[in-house]
From TrEMBL:
InterPro entries: CsgH-like (IPR048632), CsgH_dom (IPR047726), Curli_assembly_CsgC/AgfC (IPR053722). Pfam families: CsgH. Keywords: Plasmid. The keyword Lyase does not apply. Residues 42-125 form the CsgH-like domain. This is CsgH-like domain-containing protein.
Length: 133
């Protein structure tokens, strides 16, 4: 017997399966991409990795062509121990079709804490990509 689903149902099932796999990776403490934004052949993302009591926020970028510019990675956390605001800025060179880790920040916000992170990539005074978690 063959089961047939309309195309929309198949896409929903595929999306549900991807969400479940993502949740499983998060529960096991493995690396979990938090999303991405694209523009002008550039893709950026904040990868969130938990290990013990620390959570790492890594700013990643990819490009279809060679790009030079600047990045800002801002991580703000609020937890039982207080408030922390970290801003890291720097220059980068993206080589075509290669992932680059621009910056990393580790925080310990605890189970009741909140963390917000933002990655912004600029070149020649123009924002090429930004992502907020």
């Amino acid at each position: 017997m063959t089961l047939r689903f309309p195309p929309a149902a198949g896409r929903r099932m595929l999306a549900s399966g991807a969400a479940i796999l993502s949740l499983c990776a998060a529960v096991q403490g493995e690396e979990q991409p938090s999303g991405g934004a694209a523009g002008g052949g550039i893709r950026c993302e904040i990868r969130i990795t938990s290990n013990g009591g620390l959570t790492e926020y890594a700013g990643l970028a990819w490009a279809a062509r060679r790009v030079e510019g600047e990045y800002d990675l801002t991580v703000s956390s609020r937890g039982p121990g207080g408030v922390s605001n970290t801003v890291q800025r720097g220059r980068f060179v993206l080589e075509p079709h290669r992932q680059s880790v621009l910056s990393r920040v580790q925080v310990m916000a605890g189970r009741t804490g909140t963390v917000q992170a933002r990655l912004s990539i600029h070149s020649n005074g123009r924002e090429l990509c930004q992502f907020t978690s």
